[in-house]
Specification:
The chain has a seven-stranded mixed sheet with strand order 1-2-6-7-5-4-3. By secondary structure, it is α+β, with helices and mostly antiparallel strands. Helix 9 runs parallel beside helix 11 and helix 10 crosses helix 13. It has 14 helices and 15 strands. Strand 4 and strand 5 form a beta hairpin. It starts with a helix and ends with a strand.
């Protein structure tokens, strides 16, 4: 499974990285070089598709381009119709609602009398983005916005009043430009093509979308390199770490522990592969579902898919590193040596245990492996051993044993807002003492009842009726 997983990850990460680098890479390079100012001799059609900076000086109408999903009264993107004096044409500016204060200020100033405009900040607003041809729906929104423009309404209303017409449309440069524009609209002069300049957009991608695509591509480049390294490393021939039968008792003991430790690590890593894969697939599916739910199908590839991949892969890496950190056989062996020394501090007794362990036949061994953990050991003549996946060791000295008691432990624990029910099966060992004890001297817990049953059958074979065996 390890090799197949690395092959699949290597291929998938390579495809994802190449796709998003090609998809957003050119826009990133354009963004890094910066926008080019729109030249006076350039028409909007000539500049279409390029990254430009444009000074919007005459906003004359407004419309709501996009609302937040589920909230029809809350505008997400505002649209402004801008009159361009040099080109005698209109262009449309799209900008997030929370950033359109300057446009709103300038639009309100256009509707004021000349003497009031003189006291206001009427500076043009710089917009960076790419010009794109407006869709049919956008063109319809622009026409409707122009027809409902307050400036055009005022022009029509003041046509019979020389005083108002002079005050609003004749005394300053703004008024003269607006008068010329309104007259052309009333004469029926309309554009055949409308161009849209969306703040921050380069091509068809926004700045945030470009960075999400690039970050997704870079993360997949790293995943590709690490996965390829793991694949090549896995193809190398591993030298056997199992000593010959003539090795020392300690070498043979550690070799047997290494066998079980590697078995647990392999099992744990395979679980890590599954969790990592599921986290990417599930997270991606959630993001795609959100995009469809909010009716943003046009943003699936620019935003929702790369964001889902980025978040899902980060979660997968957390899963993977967590499982990988707990799946190192040598690390488990070091802990076993440490806990064995604490369990049997006397060196001669520890050596006696090791000697008996390696000479005890495999028919006296037991093992339990579940997703919660793994344990293994042997029931020797004098020592019964239990080794855990986290390196902890329990040694039962049969020469001191008085009673073995089994019990089923169940209960519930709080896991966040959910109460989780658990069941485990324990064997409690009581040593010979003059005073009876309430707590056992040693305890070993199993997650599967049959595994406890198998262990107790080995115990009964060893001691027969010489030691009391009860069930609590």
């Amino acid at each position: 499974m390890k090799k197949l997983f690395h092959i699949a990850v290597t291929l998938c990460s390579a495809v994802i990285a190449v796709f998003f680098l090609l998809y957003a890479g050119p826009q990133l390079m354009t963004m890094q070089t910066g926008p080019e100012p729109l030249k006076p001799e350039q028409s909007f059609a000539d500049a279409a598709g390029t990254y430009i900076s444009y000074e919007a000086a005459y906003p004359v109408a407004f419309w709501a381009e996009e609302y937040y999903s589920g909230d029809p009264d809350r505008i997400k993107t505002s649209g402004y119709v801008i009159y361009d004096v040099n080109r005698d044409a209109f262009v449309c500016i799209l900008i997030p609602k929370e950033k359109d204060q300057d446009f709103d200020r300038l639009l309100r100033g256009m509707a004021l009398a000349a003497e009031m405009r003189a006291d206001r900040d009427m500076s043009p607003i710089l917009v960076n983005g790419s010009l794109t041809l407006a869709s049919q729906e956008q063109a319809g929104n622009v026409m409707d916005a122009l027809e409902e423009s307050k400036i055009l309404e005022q022009y029509i209303e003041f046509m019979d009043s020389d005083t108002y017409m002079k005050s609003y449309f004749g005394e300053d440069e703004y008024g003269k430009v607006l008068r010329n524009m309104c007259q052309k609209l009333l004469d029926g002069e309309h554009q055949s093509e409308w161009y849209v300049l969306e703040q921050g957009n380069i091509g068809s991608l926004g700045t945030g979308e470009i960075w999400i695509c690039i970050l997704t591509a870079l993360l997949n480049v790293l995943i590709f390199l690490f996965s390829l390294f793991g694949l090549l490393k896995g193809n190398q021939t591993e030298t056997s770490q199992t000593p010959a039968a003539s090795g020392s008792a300690m070498e043979r003991f550690l070799a047997e522990q290494r066998f079980y430790a590697k078995d647990w690590c392999t099992f744990n890593l395979n679980r890590g592969y599954r969790l990592a894969s599921m986290s990417v697939v599930v997270t991606l599916a959630i993001f795609v579902a959100i995009g469809i739910f909010v009716k943003a199908a046009d943003r699936l590839v620019p935003f929702y898919i790369p964001a889902g991949l980025l978040f899902g892969e980060l979660v997968a890496l957390l899963f993977w590193f967590s499982q990988s950190n707990r799946s190192k056989p040598e690390k488990i062996l070091k802990k076993i040596e440490k806990y064995l020394a604490k369990e049997l501090p006397d060196a001669s007794m520890r050596n006696a245990f090791i000697e008996e362990f390696v000479n005890t036949e495999q028919s006296w061994s037991f093992c339990e492996k579940t997703k919660e953990g793994m344990l293994w050991g042997k029931t020797g003549e004098r020592f019964w051993s239990i080794f855990l996946w986290n390196g902890r060791v329990t040694i039962v000295d049969v020469s001191q044993l008085k009673e073995v008691q089994t019990e089923t432990i169940s209960g519930t624990v709080n896991s966040g807002a959910v109460r989780v029910h658990y069941v485990s099966y324990a064997a409690n060992f009581y040593y010979q003492e003059d005073m009876p004890k309430r707590k056992p001297d040693k305890t070993v817990s199993f997650n599967v009842e049959d595994r406890l049953g198998f262990f107790m059958s080995l115990v009964h074979r060893r001691v027969g009726d010489s030691i009391t065996i009860t069930c609590k």
